[in-house]
Specification:
heterodimer; A: about 120 residues; alpha+beta; 4-stranded antiparallel β-sheet; two-stranded antiparallel ribbon; 3 helices; 6 strands; about 45% helix; B: about 180 residues; mainly alpha; Ferritin; about 0% strand; Ferritin-like_SF (chain B); iron (chain B)
Chain lengths: ~120, ~180
């Protein structure tokens, strides 16, 4: 049986997880809390928006038990994240950093294209 | 490594989101004008009911114009959900006050979009929204003039009847262009 290795490029790695990019399938791979999730760019950006919109301070201040966890589920992502405050902080940092590196890559592409013209 | 962010569109995430927010704002304005049309109709202001119906159609057309642009540029245009729309108004005058308030809010929103386009160096979108910026001059003018009729004619006696008759006749004349 012929096996094809999936070519992935690392976008960002933190202590808690990593984000990779697959140029063949144009997908992002989010490795977090022991699971890998394959996402389209739109779903990745949507996930980032949802995580960013969670009020971490309110979660930390609230004595209610339901505030200990947050359930994150976005359209286009088959995984439902159930995250503690610590995990949320880590995921937020990971997504923000990966997004920043993607933007940096985009800017490099722009500069290189401008050089070619 | 491929540039996945710009693989399908040159629109940045920020601009796409801003335009989708504007699509929602136009849809809400359209719904609001339709509610105003209904209120006017229920209270016997025939001409104003027609005027607001026309305004509602215009706002929806603006929404579709923005929607088409986002789609044409390879972005993701979102058909917006509209929340509860106010159906009752304090008075005939209050309806027009709210209409002017709405138009001013739309103008400010387009100014913010223009500002964001310049910050993002997105001159294609900047050029696209010029049409809306120009359109807002007329929209604001008509809404302001309608409200001024209340001062000019007065609401006593047959005043409101006269105002109602004159509202659809308000025209913006762009004397110094074309």
């Amino acid at each position: 049986m012929k096996q094809t290795a999936i070519q992935t490029a690392e976008i960002y790695t933190s202590e808690t997880g990593a984000v990779y990019q697959c140029d063949r399938s144009n997908r992002l791979i989010l490795s977090f809390a022991g699971h890998a999730t394959v996402l389209k760019v739109e779903a990745f950006l949507r996930l980032k928006r949802v995580v960013d919109s969670i009020d971490l301070q309110a979660m930390a201040n609230s004595p209610a038990r339901c505030s200990d966890y947050e359930i994150v589920s976005v359209c286009g992502c088959d995984r439902c994240f159930v995250l503690t405050l610590t995990e949320l902080i880590a995921l937020k940092e990971l997504l923000a950093s990966a997004r920043f590196m993607m933007e940096l890559n985009s800017m490099l592409h722009q500069c290189l294209n401008a050089e070619l013209v | 490594m491929k540039d996945l962010l710009r693989l399908r569109t040159s629109l940045t995430e920020v601009i796409e989101q801003t335009l989708n927010e504007q699509i929602k704002m136009e849809a809400e304005a359209s719904a609001m004008y339709l509610a105003m049309s209904s209120w006017c109709d229920r209270n016997g202001f025939d001409f104003s009911a027609g005027y607001f119906k026309k305004q509602s159609d215009e706002e929806r057309e603006h929404m579709l114009r923005l929607f088409k642009y986002v789609s044409d540029m390879g972005g993701r245009a979102v058909s917006p959900a509209i929340g509860d729309v106010q159906v009752e108004y304090d008075s005939f005058r209050n309806v027009f006050e709210m209409a002017l308030q709405q138009e001013i809010a739309v103008t400010q929103s387009f100014n913010r979009i223009a500002d964001r386009c310049q910050k993002e160096k997105d001159y294609v979108t900047f050029s696209f929204i010029q049409w809306f910026l120009k359109e807002q001059i007329e929209e604001e003018y008509v809404a302001r003039r309608a409200l001024e009729l209340f001062e000019l004619i007065g609401e006593d006696g047959t005043g409101r009847y006269e105002i109602d008759k004159r509202v659809p006749k308000i025209k913006y004349e762009n004397t110094y262009e074309d």
